[in-house]
Amino acid sequence: MHADEAALARLKAMQLCANCHGPQGLAALPRTPHLAGQDQDYLVEQLRQYRNGRRHHEVMSVIAKTLSDQDIVLTSSWYSSLRISVEDKN
Asked: 47-64 b/e with 16+ CB inside 10 Å = b?
């Protein structure tokens, strides 16, 4: 992804997703999935299913109906590009 595409992808994710899924893809709300590091194809497919009604969620179904194909690809590419690391406390 080029720098300008990455900036646009991040902006779209912040506008559309960050309130629930967090700016870095780590959700703070209960029963809200983390998106950071998820497979891009998986995220694209899920958003398309919400948009076309094959998958239903009270909030996501409404939000996804407003997404263009470009919005879906951009937000999915942003969250899939984020990496999570785990610290072993042992």
From this structure: bbebbeeeeeeeebeebb
Contact indicator for 80, 38 with CB cutoff of 8 Å: yes
From CA 7, how far away is CA 9, in angstroms rounded? 5
- The residue ranges of every structural domain in the chain are 3-81
The token pair at 44 is: 């694209």
CATH classification (class only), 3-81:
mainly alpha
Segment 62-88 mean pLDDT: 91
- Decide if 85 contacts 25 (C-beta within 8 A): no
The CA distance from 30 to 22, in Å, is: 12
Give pLDDT tens digits for 11-57.
888 888 999 999 899 998 999 999 999 999 999 999 999 999 999 99
